[in-house]
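Data card: per-record layout.
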Amino acid sequence: MPVTPLRASYEKFINKEKIKAYADAAGDTKGTTDAFLKPDVLPSSAEYFETLRNAQIKLMVEIITGKKTADVYQTEFNEIWNQYGGNVLEGETVQVAENIENILAELGIE
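The structure for this 110-residue chain is written out next.
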């Protein structure tokens, strides 16, 4: 993630029951407490993430340095996303989010 919100800012806007459920599930002894939905925890991250991010960064550098114009960004970004496994990671992210929502629903947390 290029920008990670401060934990205090994050906690202002999330349901307090969710914070407790996440802390109970992860906790200090089990690793980071906010690992949910991070791209590096998806099943296919090792296969796709590094190449995908490098291709995206290369495109951004080409635009910043003037080798390409900003108007090509959306088209080329979508091509990069599809070519380097972004659609696979996106599908896995949706599945992880659904799993988390199902767990929270079972716990009675909205």
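Known properties of this structure: Confidence is low (pLDDT under 50) at residues 30-37. The chain has five helices and no strands.

See the next section for split statistics.
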